[in-house]
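seq as requested:
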Amino acid sequence: MGVLNAPSVRSRFATFAIYIFAAVAAIVIAGDAFSQNLSLGKRTWEGKADCPRCHAWSGLGGVGEDDRAPQGANLRETVMDRAALEEVIKCGLPGTEMPFFSRLAWTDDDHRCFGMTRAEAGNLVPFKAERNLIQREIDALLDYMFAKVVGRGEISREECEEYFSPGSERCRLYRTAAEIAAAAG
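struct tokens:
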């Protein structure tokens, strides 16, 4: 019997092949799950949480999609990490017009926000959002924000077209990524 036909070598090769297949399958499944999570995050951003109303579609802040709405913060330049942004989404931002989206926020001592109870925060407690978000939606929204908004800098035409559609008229006012890079030097 040749070396390659030995049962132990074939068995090890088969085991190795199974591990490789499993690893590739796990990567593909994880990538698809992340893609689905980004999709849920974008739907939450646009719909249920209605973030563009105050922060604009791009997260740039200022006057959002509704000029009657409060002027939201520039999320593209925020220095908050994921945990801080999660608390802001759940609890709102005391003393501002950023609403809270968690049905449990500010309800009792077990659901403090920014280390305070509702009584301690007094009139600084933000208003309740029109719709509550569940934890899965909050996680997906954060994934979307960190993939497409936070730390993104100047808005490019390509980014705008990815959000709206290729060739969208409203995206013509933005420079291309190449133009932005060239201007940066």
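Helices lie at 7-48, 52-55, 82-91, 118-121, 135-148, 157-163, 177-184.
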